[in-house]
Amino acid sequence: MLTPDPKRDRMKTDREHGLRWFVRIMKTPITVTVTGAAGQIAYSLLFRIAAGDMLGSDQPVNLRLLEIEPAMKALDGVVMELKDCAFPLVQEIAATSDPDEAFRGANWCILVGSVPRKAGMERKDLLNINGKVFIGQGQAIARSAAENVRVFVVGNPCNTNALIAMKNASGVPHDRFFAMTRLDENRAKSQLADKAGVHLSRVTNMTIWGNHSSTQYPDWTNAKIDGRPVTDFIKDADWLKGEFISTVQQRGAAIIAARGLSSAASAANAAIDTVRSLSFPTPEGDWHSVALCSDGSYGVPAEIISSFPVRTTADGKVEIVQGLPIDAFSRGKIDASVKELLEEKEAVSSIL
Ligand code: NAX
Least enclosed by CB within 10 Å: which of 113, 177, 276, 282? Predict the structure, then answer.
């Protein structure tokens, strides 16, 4: 144990103080709004945003947190804990149940809050209940967020919730809306790495196509291990076409069965990964998965929020990777998931 040394301790305090001051003067803070801020995903997500994991260790942030009225007391506790972490990057924290107040000046809106499916509820009922929430939030984003706002939906059914928000956020360009399939991508990479007996950093180019649901298609045909086809490492074609896909599709349910609660830390981690990948250039030759408004690429009808292979360019543009070969097996899987998205769109057509 070090003996007390007032001079050394004073220098250490000065250094910490200097770092905090340096961070404060370096960059304009980015305002991040998180909805469902007292929920279990947010309980992991907020602390990682505040620590700089999402936007960078030199990027100050303002946190604006939205909850429904009954959860405001729990949210107060989350705010207390955020303050007690004394994160140097956090400039302001606001907690509210008013969407306009929450989205005021937001550069990033991460929409996590959503009503969960209850026993006896049809998918259509869930779509309509959440639809109302995302109409209001889309409108509030249009009224109150920053001009360069980007909206990233995690709350399920996330693709269609994003579509509803997009259609109701009048004046906000459609290319600002995203929904999360990165957790599925990460799950797929991990499954391939385990099966091939390699570290998962060697697995790249993993696309999730379609809907974040049990119809999603984790595309092993275009994925790579050490830059080579996955089939160079995994010879079991039946596994790739069957168990691999169903394991990724059903992973959420498997976690609920094991943990008694849905995935939270891994979902928060995937949200961090997504915003980071959309904010910084994608490594050469690779891509990542996120659902965005289709422009008709790969035969996916325009104006649905569907997952694609995506790159962020050096000048910050987000582009769908073009020209990937789609074999008959992949075509069938993509079409099945897109069909589900079109059915969801039809079910909420009255509120678009
Ligand atoms: P929790 O139930 O723990 O938290 C949700 C929070 O949202 C609650 O605190 C609730 O009060 C709040 N909320 C509800 N309506 C709101 C509204 N109108 N405005 C603001 N807040 C509102 O759920 P959690 O485990 O955090 O999951 C959140 C959502 O993420 C769920 O819809 C879940 O299905 C979805 N997921 C999406 C994933 C994806 O890959 N896209 C994976 C993980 C997760 O399943």
Answer: 276
* 3-state secondary structure string across 64-116: EEECCHHHHHHHHHHHHHHHHCCCCCEEEEEEECCHHHHHCCCCEEEECCCCC
Mutate-to-test residue for ligand 1 from 34, 78, 114, highest number of ligand atoms within 8 A of CB: 114
Ligand 1 atom nearest to 270, measured from its CA: 40
Per-residue pLDDT reduced to its tens digit, 294-346: 999 999 999 999 999 999 999 999 999 999 999 999 999 999 999 999 999 99
CA of 115 to the centre of ligand 1 (A): 7
Neighbour order of strands in the sheet with 228-229: 203-204, 224-225, 228-229
Q: Of all protein residues, whose CA lies closest to atom 42 belonging to ligand 1?
A: 267
Using only C-alpha atoms, what is the Rg of the chain? 21
> For the whole model, what pTM was predicted?
0.93
Residues tagged active-site: 212
